[in-house]
Amino acid sequence: MFNRIRRLRQVAAIASISSLVAGCGVLSSDSTEEAGPIVVGTTAAPSTLDPAAAWDSSWELFRNIYQTLLSYPAGASEPEPDAAESCQFTDNSNMKYKCELREGLKFSDGHALDAKAVKHSIDRIREINVNGGPAGLLGSLDRVQVLNDREVVFHLNKADATFPFVLATPAMSIVDPEDYPADKLREDNSIVGSGPYTLESYDEGKEAELLKNETYQGYAERKNDAVTIRYFQDSPTMVGALRDKELDVAIRGLDADDIVDLQADDKDELQLIEGSGTEINYLVFNPKDPMAGKSAVRKAIAQLVDRPAIAHKVYKDTVEPLYSMVPKGLTGHTTGFFDDYGDPSATKARDILTEAGISAPVPLEFWYTSDRYGSATKGEFEELKSQLEESGLFKITLKSRPWKTYVTGYQNGEYPVFGRGWFPDFPDADNFIAPFVGKQNALGTPYVTPKITETLLPSSRAQSDRANVVKDFEDAQRILVDDARLLPLWQGRQYVAASSEISGAERALDPSTIMLVGELYRKTSW
């Protein structure tokens, strides 16, 4: 396909996942109908069902119901054709990207899926332009050209070797022009897609019922006929449902206490699959806030935060401290925050504030989501509050909201300081810098930094061989450390808990850790 980015295979460590506890015997997926649908639990409920609005956990559902031109078959580390039959750059400058669709594609409502539908789907993302939405992923796109029913060309405004990875994100899901308006979001709780499954029913925040899409054409093998996804507010309730056999799989939002308990469980009824990951967790400072907008306040907090304590006390060492927005395992990772600040020091933090003429204690509100990342988030923010207040330099007020309203709050600039997690759109350092900077970004908080957006990112995207972009990303991270607008806290591992009767869980996460429910099936013999 696009052989210019083969080196990206080296950074997709999350695609290889090993089981800690596994059943034994001969496995088969010949029939799953008698036992009913596979039931999956997660704390990552969608915030919307319209791809034009989502740059968040909604992608978990989208990947399984909508279709993209390119996607990730299980075990792949770079995108491969899905709705497309083939895709490639047609020039040497990485500025024209052409895709040819599979023949005879149809949406679940029977309408034809053609090149015009692809153009409509991409154009409406930019036309609707949701704040904090996926339009920010399309910064290098100039226009979409339809050549005929099956051929579409993406003309870029600058070289971008990562553009195929953008097309593979669920944000670029192909939608039916007859069901999705060009200038506004679809408002009902329905989906018309062409993906591996159809959405048979949806109870917002509670449950989604998926059935195999009989007209699907793509790479997915689908080893089951139906999947029910149940959405939980917290990990203990979800794991309790798994232990009570109300769930077959728990795939997102497992708390540290539950992971430790599952690791220690010597029963044969459950299995825990662990893999390396590139999920990160970080703080965002609102530059318009009277206090969070001050560089000295941000740097004093950076000097006080004890990441190892958070990893150990709150997360029981199921995560590790992170000192860069680019996680370990990706080309370009650095340890800039540790290099600049070293170990936590109240004395150094006080000096930073004093030199800036800022009196202590500094009052600040810290916001977190009460349900998106698991119930341990509350403990994390209580630990942050304790660390900052023990220094005598800060007075922290903690506040929280459920994810759906939390998103609206940070998009509207309501929070002085707020927590975010990030699961990569694709496995490249670009995706841990570009989404957070510029006037339009995934945080809804403009971060104008011309050196990164106009020089370093374009320079790195012109490089097909990603081993040649280290210096660009090191320079970009130097700017992020100096500004301290984003404060990395920890890097996570990936955990999936499942009944011992379930197979395929080790293959059910793609390189961006999005769930591929078609890989799950029941063992029918031992």
TrEMBL record:
GO cellular component: ATP-binding cassette (ABC) transporter complex; cell envelope; periplasmic space
Predominant localisation class: other
Domain of life assignment: Bacteria
Keyword Glycoprotein listed: no
Family recorded in the similarity comment: Belongs to the bacterial solute-binding protein 5 family.
GO molecular function: peptide transmembrane transporter activity
PANTHER family: PERIPLASMIC BINDING COMPONENT OF ABC TRANSPORTER, PERIPLASMIC OLIGOPEPTIDE-BINDING PROTEIN-RELATED
Name this protein carries in UniProt: Peptide-binding protein
Source organism of the structure: Streptomyces cyaneochromogenes
Membrane-spanning segments: none
Keyword annotations of the record: Signal, Transport
Signal peptide: 1-22
Location of the protein in the cell: Cell envelope
Residue ranges occupied by any Solute-binding protein family domain in the UniProt entry: 78-442
Coiled coil residues, start to end: none
GO biological process, one term: peptide transport
Entry-linked InterPro entries: Peptide/Ni-bd, SBP_5, SBP_5_dom
